[in-house]
């Protein structure tokens, strides 16, 4: 398994996946890392729905405006948080990032697909039979990469300021 710094440096958004399943125990470990994310007041307002069935992934892909590639992933994690929690977006985003990084530690790639307040959010919630008290935060397709994108990242010197801008 890779160390945290290597994982963060190697992680990229991937939209093309090999047709190779992810072992259930690996998916469980990835989600376990999601549930360990920091959360305001330790509320832990989340629930994670892992979808591996082809027909359900296809329906999610049809609904998600910019997530058509979800159908080709081995799994898709839908991250939901209790909408009455005042920090549900922050908490769900922290959990999403943990999921993405834990996946990369297993050499599994992903792409964060927006879910919060999207036109399809409610339809995905209903499709997955998630109670109304939860709101979709993100969709995270997971799979073994068919590509190795390496887009340029801004250099540290361009984004780091000390004390003041």
From TrEMBL:
Name by which UniProt lists this protein: NADH dehydrogenase
Pfam families reported for this sequence: Nitroreductase (PF00881)
Species whose genome carries this gene: Thermovenabulum gondwanense
SUPFAM superfamilies: FMN-dependent nitroreductase-like
Origin: domain of life: Bacteria
Family note: Belongs to the nitroreductase family.
Keyword annotations: Oxidoreductase
InterPro entries registered for this protein in UniProt: Nitroreductase, Nitroreductase-like
Gene3D superfamilies reported in the protein's UniProt record: NADH Oxidase (3.40.109.10)
UniProt-listed Enzyme Commission number(s): 1.6.99.3
CDD domains associated with the record: Nitro_FMN_reductase
Regions crossing the membrane: none
């Amino acid at each position: 398994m890779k160390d945290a710094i290597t994982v963060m440096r190697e992680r990229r958004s991937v939209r093309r996946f090999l047709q190779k399943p992810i072992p259930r125990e690996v998916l469980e470990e990835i989600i376990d890392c999601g549930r360990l994310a920091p959360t305001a007041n330790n509320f832990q307002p989340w629930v994670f729905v892992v979808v591996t069935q082809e027909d359900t992934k296809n329906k999610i892909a049809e609904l998600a405006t910019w997530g058509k590639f979800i159908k080709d992933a081995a799994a898709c994690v839908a991250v939901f948080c209790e909408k009455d929690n005042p920090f549900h977006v922050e908490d769900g985003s922290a959990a999403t990032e943990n999921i993405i990084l834990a996946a990369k530690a297993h050499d599994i790639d992903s792409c964060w697909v927006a879910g919060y307040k999207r036109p399809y959010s409610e339809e995905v919630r209903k499709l997955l039979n998630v109670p109304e008290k939860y709101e979709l935060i993100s969709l995270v397709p997971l799979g073994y990469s068919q590509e190795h994108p390496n887009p340029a990242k801004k250099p540290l010197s361009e984004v780091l300021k000390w004390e003041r801008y």
